[in-house]
């Protein structure tokens, strides 16, 4: 069982920051090369999920890790409060239609897990519905994994309570970050312990494993994520399709 408070949010002291950033740069370049082949081949699809508390660096992770990728191969979706139409359907309806087709990467900045996180934290759904939704999430992920050759990466961006304070305050103090400021983020922070409990439930009950990414130092976040993604992409039989005979 994963307990988040037992996992450090900081990089190991033995890791050299300069060397790690160089490795990250090279890995990101290689990821870009492989994604171009994946896009051309159209045999596999990739789904990347980012979950984490406010100011855990989800937007930055998208920019850094996929900075060398072909823009036509990637779609990024941010899931906000459901619309009236989405509320009128099952909770996976708005998600399933955005699952990546072969040759594409879909990046979910927050995801279907919000429906067993924020709704559970605030008591908007009962525990029976939470458990049923968890089963549905596992079935959905297994479906697209095996029925559409979808490679699924699930990243929990693990930020400390103290570091979140710093990040949220920067959105007030630094003009270039004012656009990110949301008073509601400070309100949600009051439910920190409940969020950790709900995240642990989601992580421990997922059939497809999560990667817990320490993010107090953002360079370490990028270092780990590029390593994980590159290792999985290198395992695929990626190759450019041959010229079709006329």
Question: How would you portray this structure in words?
Answer:
The chain has 246 residues and is α/β, with parallel strands linked by helices. The chain has a single domain, classed as 3-Layer(aba) Sandwich (Rossmann fold). Helices cover 47% and strands 13% of the residues. It has ten helices and five strands. It has helices at 17-41, 58-65, 84-87, 93-96, 118-121, 127-147, 161-173, 183-189, 192-204, 218-234, and strands at 45-52, 74-78, 105-109, 150-158, 211-214. Strands 2-3-1-4-5 form a five-stranded parallel sheet, with helices on both faces.
- Kindly provide the radius of gyration, computed on alpha-carbon positions and rounded to a whole number of angstroms: 19 Å
**Which superfamily, in CATH terms, is the homologous superfamily?**
P-loop containing nucleotide triphosphate hydrolases
Helix content: 40-55%
Number of strands: 5
Order of helices and strands: HEHEHHEHHEHHHEH
For the residues shown, what is the average pLDDT?
Answer: 95
Q: Output the number of helix runs.
A: 10
In spatial order, strands of the major sheet run: 2-3-1-4-5
User: What is the CATH architecture assignment?
Assistant: 3-Layer(aba) Sandwich
Can you tell me the CATH topology? Rossmann fold
- Characterize the main sheet: 5 strands, parallel
In short:
The chain has helices at residues 17-41, 58-65, 84-87, 93-96, 118-121, 127-147, 161-173, 183-189, 192-204, 218-234, and strands at 45-52, 74-78, 105-109, 150-158, 211-214.
């Amino acid at each position: 069982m994963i307990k988040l408070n037992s996992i450090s949010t900081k990089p190991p002291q033995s890791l050299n920051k300069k060397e790690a950033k160089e490795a990250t740069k090279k890995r990101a370049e290689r990821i870009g090369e492989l994604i171009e082949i994946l896009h051309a081949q159209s045999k596999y699809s990739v789904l990347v999920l980012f979950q984490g508390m406010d100011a855990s660096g989800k937007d930055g992770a998208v920019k850094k890790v996929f900075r060398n990728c072909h823009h036509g191969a990637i779609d990024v979706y941010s899931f906000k409060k459901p619309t009236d139409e989405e509320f009128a359907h099952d909770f996976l309806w708005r998600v399933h239609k955005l699952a990546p087709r072969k040759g594409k990467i879909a990046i979910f900045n927050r995801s279907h897990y919000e429906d067993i996180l924020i709704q559970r934290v605030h008591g908007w759904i009962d525990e029976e519905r939470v458990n049923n939704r968890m089963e549905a999430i596992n079935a959905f992920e297994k479906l697209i994994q095996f029925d559409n050759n979808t490679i699924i990466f699930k990243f929990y961006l693990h930020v400390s309570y103290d570091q979140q304070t710093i990040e949220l305050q920067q959105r007030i103090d630094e003009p270039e970050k004012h656009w990110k400021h949301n008073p509601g983020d400070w309100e949600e922070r009051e439910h920190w312990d409940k969020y950790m409990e709900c995240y642990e439930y989601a992580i421990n009950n997922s059939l497809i494993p999560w990667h817990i990414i320490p993010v107090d130092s953002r360079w370490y976040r990028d270092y780990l994520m590029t390593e994980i993604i590159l290792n999985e992409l290198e395992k695929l039989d990626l190759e450019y399709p041959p010229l079709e005979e006329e």
